[in-house]
Every structure is written in C-alpha cells, then in structure tokens.
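Reagents: none. Just compute today. alpha-L-fucosidase.
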Amino acid sequence: MPKLWCFLSTITFFQLCTFTFSGLELVPTPPLPILPLPSYAQLKWQQRELIMFLHFGVNTFTDSEWGTGHENPAIFNPVGLNANQWLSTAADAGISLVILTAKHHDGFCLWPSKYTDHSVEKSPWKNGHGDVVQELVNAAKPLGVDVGLYLSPWDRHDQRYGHEIAYNQYYLAQLQELLNRYGSVREIWFDGSKGKNAPNMSYYFTDWFSMVKELQSSINIFSDAGPDVRWVGNEKGFAGSTCWSTINRTSLSIGNASIEDYLNNGDPKGTDWLPAECDVSIRQGWFWHKSQTPKRLSQLLEIYYNSVGRNCVLLLNVPPNSTGLISEADVQRLREFRRAIDTIFSNNLADKCSVKVSSQRGGKGGGFGPENVLDSDHLRTYWAPRDDDKEGHWIEIRGTGTDGGLRFNVIRIQEAIGLGQRIKRHEIYVDGKRVANGTTVGFKRLHRLEEGVIHGKIVKIRIEESKGLPLISSIGLHFDPFWHPNGQRPK
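Predicted 3D structure written out:
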C-alpha cells in the first residue's frame, strides 16, 4: 500500500508540473538561434540589396583604369560636376547607399587632405576650393541616401609608399580625416589590389579596422576578410549557387587569390557572420570611358538573380563622366533596371493563396504560423515547425481562384536570418513535379525557372536538410516578363 501511494503521489506531482509548464507554454517561445548571428548593421546592409559604386578621379580624364600616380592634378576639371544628379539617379533606382572612390590607386584625393597636396586642392576645378566628398555628402542627406567611402591602400603617388611605418601612419591619418570630417559613413571599402611591381610592404589592417570602429561604431567594413562584409571572390557580380553568410575569418587574408572559391561559397561551419558583397560595373570598365556603353537589361537582371537572388548584396558601379555627371545612357539603363525589378516583384501571386505546412510551432495562433510567410515583414516574422517534427519540413501554397491555377516563372524564398542561416538543401515541386532545387537560401533565394512559365495549382517547398529548424520568413511566386529561356515567349 505505501508503494502504491508513493506511485500515485509521483504521478500527481508530474501532472501538476505538466499543467504548470503547459500554462507557461500558452505563448510559445522562439526557437534557439543558430550561431553565428548578424549584427544590427549587417542586417540593415543586407536589406539594402542594391548599392551604388562611383569610380571617379584622374582616370576619368586619362581614359585609364589604373593611374600611374604621376598624373598632373590640373587634368581633373569636371566643370559640370553635379552630385545632386548622382544621388537623384541612385534614389530613383531604389539605391540607399552610395560608395565613392575618395582615393584610388593613383593616390589622387577627391577631398582637400592636409596630408598631401596631390588632391583637388591643386586642380583647376572650383579654383582649388572643391571637395567631391563633401558634395556627395551634401547631396545625399536630403534624399535620405547613406554614404560610403573607398580609400585605396595601394598608392602609386605618395613617396611614403613602400616605407611601412611612414605609409601606414599616412593612411591611418587619412582614414581619420575622412571619418571625422564628413559625418556618418555606413560602409568603408578596403581591398588588397596592387600591381606586380608595387613595392613590397605590409598594410596594418588590424590597426586600421580598430580605428574605424572607434570613430564610427555602426559602420560596416568591407574587405576580403571583413570584418563585416566580405568580397564575393570575383568582379562579375555572381555569388556561388551555394552561398553561406558564415565563414571562418581565420582562413581569410586580404589580396589572396587562392581563397576566391571559399569567399564565393562561404562555409556552413563558419564561426563568423560575414556576408558577401558582389561588385560589378554597369560598363566594361570601372571608370568612365567614352567608347563604352552600359550592359543590356538582360545582363543586369542575370547579375541580380545571381547576387541578390543568392543571399548577397549587389554593388553596382556607375561611373561619372569627365563632365562630372552620370551619363544619360547609364541613367536610363538604371531606370529601366529598377522598373524591371519592380515589375517582377511588386506582385506576389502567393498572396491570394492558401498555405499549409508540415507542422507549426505552438499550434494554431502560436505566432509561428504559415501566414507569416505572406506578410510584409521579411525578417522578423516567420513560420517555424515543431521541435519534434521528424517527418520532414515542407510548406505548400495552393491556388484558390476559380480554377486554382497559378502562372509564374520565379520562386522566392527567404529565411529569418536574425536567428542564423539554416537551410542546407531544398526542393520545389509544382503539382508533384520537381521544377527547382538548391542548397542555401539565406536572406533571399530566387529561382528563375529554367523551363520558363509554369501553370500549376500546388507549389510545395521541401526543406531536405537544415541546421536546426528551418525558419521561413517569406515566400513569393512571381512572373518575370523579361525571362525567355530557350526562346520561349510568355503567353
């Protein structure tokens, strides 16, 4: 009898505990994050999707890409320079951050630096009283566009280059000058590019990065090795079909060509959140050349799908000409590009569909339901399956029209990356037929369907493999009228 009483007492105790715990679970908690996680500044950067680069300097007037460092400052005279035109062009294209080459490899400074006379101060432009960086900042502020700066480590003009201590001090002084004088800078751009015959010397990147963060704590630092944004490993604007925002910084070094594939793909076991930025020019060259014309719209869309559509941010260079304006052909192509993006993605066919999922964390009304994938928040709200769902994770979109039919050729998937990047492998089926498959998703994955326009009723996205629970923040079905694979014309 005592044993029976003890047994019944134990059961009653656990029932009480279960009742208590179930009471606490009335509001289900979010899943645990999968480390590493992005910083606030990195999340804001990721949401920009499209950034503009402005390569401008003495090369604009010498029809060259890499200056010699011996150019006479007198050649720099953009008599019609209008930074308002640059920034309105950016704003019209939906761009929220513009990065200027404050100093390129030739060493010519677009601001009147007190540490060198090789600058706009020695040019005839505005009788030596001009400051391109200040003009950029002044034009950006009223439009709500943020500013970034590029300061080339390789300097072919300054005599201190090659003398390690002296040049690193000079470079650091100019960094301080730029970050103290021109207000908030959202991205600072470093690279390791240098010619084969350049003097051998070490850059004190660690010192530079520390100083940058001291002066502007919310800034993102770009380089091959971050620490906030990494290079994608090429200048074509293409990320790898697998592209992790995570990577091991200890495996990276600036200017090391042997790590380009690693940069392109990232690392699922990476200990650092270091997303990739895809840099490419709207023209063949980085600086303006009279003989060149902008890329076709189809080329820009191809770049967009392979950069933004592969979990990256696209850094598109649009170089001002020798008058000091962005050429009209480039302005028109950018407008055309923005209109095309808006045409494709402004309408989500899934919005009018019903959504089913394999399971739901917390049950119906628990806050992690499938309705979250169709709301306007593509980051903070998401669908989460149950912890104990071992049968596979899937989400199904079903047409609800008269015939239930859907007509689309682009599928968009987005993860809630604020809790880490998770999806390793996924497949997409339309009416039971597989139409696309891939590996990583990240902030945004775009599948432009190889067979073109599809007519179907049920779209099923299966998450075949993930790190922890997959968390889907948004799904879209879109129609791209510019996509004609194998000569197909949309009906």
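The first helix runs from residue 2 to 24.
Action item: order primers for follow-up constructs.
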